[in-house]
Input
Amino acid sequence: MTTSGAARRPDLCDRSAVDLAAGYRDGSFTPVDVVASVQDRIDAVEDQVCALYAPDPASARTDAQASARRWASGRPLGPLDGVPITLKENIPTRGTPVPGGTAATDLVPAEVDSPPAARIREAGLVLLGKTTMPDWGMLSSGLSSFHHLARNPWDLDWNPGGSSAGAAAAAAAGYGPLHVGSDIGGSIRLPAGWCGLVGLKPSWGRVPIEPPYWGRAVGPIARTAADAALALAVVAAPDPDDRDHLSLPPWEVDAEPALAPADVAGLRVGVQMDAGAGLAVDDEVAAIVQRVADVFADAGARVEPVAPFLAPEGLAGLDRFWRVRGWSEYQRLDPAARERVLPYIVEWVRGGSEVSGVETLRAAETMLAVGHDALAATQGFDLVLSPVSPVATFPAEWAGPTNDPDTAMHHIAFTVPANFSHQPAVSVHAGLTSDGRPVGVQVVGRRFDDLGVLRAAAWWESVRPADATPTWPAPGVAALLDD
Output
């Protein structure tokens, strides 16, 4: 095992999970080498990126050493044994408090691992720690009353997005290849799109979670579709304790060989450039997404426009329901705890303070209507392409693209329908704006076809032009490393 600082490999922290697994198999390096490289990157930039919560480098080193011994004896626990990974802080891990992004929470250690945490330990992955999120996960931002402000590794003046803010920042900063977030309206795909990454919201129920909740999914954030597929194969394994009564049957896919980029010729591909609600699509974002559609068409896909299907009242209904839910959580707090909630969140949840029971029921039923309309509009397509967000990223200190509680959800109109139609949806990097901000394209598939959207993302990765291919380290991190 490599232990000397002089022999360390600084490049290993930016390698893919596929590459790391191959290196472990052929003995080019060990999990100890990789964890040392990742820790060096964390030590160099984390004080400014602020992606992590409860990091545990000592435990990571111990787990890496155990993994190295398993590889040396030819008995790895799985293909990703020894690969570093992080988990969003709202995905419980035994012994670590779960603040939910807010300073209002009592810091009580979780008693048991959540299903995703248990699966990654069983597969031998090295848990580096947890990643940051905003208050109650209800911002597309790295802003939090509990955590330090997470920043975008492409430029530290930009926001990584959220609510899986720290997961995306960690992935783009080179804290290893695999990160797991959660998504109830775009919280994996939005930060992935704004950080030049791949982020998958799986089909609802694909990854067992506790407790399950309407539209909420847990999924991977990585730099490549292949890595995302490998991570999904781990966390989508059945939970022996059956803690998620809404989970799907086991996802029995050998992810690595199945992810050979698909031939898109003959596929019926929809392109949606107007969501029907929320913010208008920025011209540069629209041009980048249209170029992706043109590449699909040139490869033989049957590309057709998709009409808007999310009505403004649908988006407003979802916002109203979440405000009522947030107000309910806020009202449970004692007065001192209420003072610790992020003021923006307090202003936003007050919008649910006077909503009647009847109005709340109607708002909850919006989830069914949004899902129905999304499936009806897309059922004839194999894939649907759209912007992930209508706009690129925004100042780091903002709570969202508009920084206004009255329009807090106006940027999620392309992402949120898939949460309630239960369709898999992936964000993959598609290009840069004129000032260098990453733009993602969203690929939505048929219900339960998680592999199909990942293969489409892998295909795009294999053909996209150089100017649509991210290079690592990300520019903001590279500048820190050069200092």
